Amino acid sequence: MTYLVLLGLLVSLAVAFGGMFGNKPFADKHRKLSLFGLIPAHLQWVIGVILYFVSPLGLSNFSGEAMGDSVSRLYILEHPLTMIIAVVLITVGYSRAKRQIGTEKGFKSIAIFYALALILILIRIPWNAWPNN
Q1: Cα separations in angstroms, 31 against 5, 34, 55, 127, 130
Q2: How far lies 62's CA from each of 45, 67, 73, in Å?
Q3: pLDDT-derived band at 23, boundaries 50, 70, 90
Q4: What angle do CA 7, 74, 127 make, to 5 degrees?
Q5: Model pTM?
C-alpha cells in the first residue's frame, strides 16, 4: 500500500508541475487526478492507525525505556506523528486546490502541499524494515 501512496503522490505532483509550467487553468479533471495522491494516503493512514493500536511495535510498546531506543521511538512516536502531519498537508492541499478551479493557483497548492508531504513521508519511512529487493 505504501507504494501506492508514493506513486499517487508522484502522479499528482507530475500533473501539478505540468499545469504550473504549462500555464493552464486548474480544471475539474486536474482535481480528480490529484485524488490519486489523496485517497491512497488516507487509506494508508487508516490502516496505520489500526496497526498502531494492534501491533506490538505501536502503542503497547510505549514506555520511557522505549523512548531511549531510536528504533522503538521511530515506531512509537516519530513515524506516526510525521505521517499524520503528511496526511494533513495532503488534505489541506487538496481542499485548497478544489476551491481554486479555473485559476492557476490550484496547481501551486497541490505542488506545495503534496511535495512537503512526500518529503515527510520519505524521511520517516522505516526503510530498515522494508524487504530487500
Answers
A1: 17, 5, 35, 31, 32
A2: 20, 7, 8
A3: confident
A4: 40
A5: 0.86
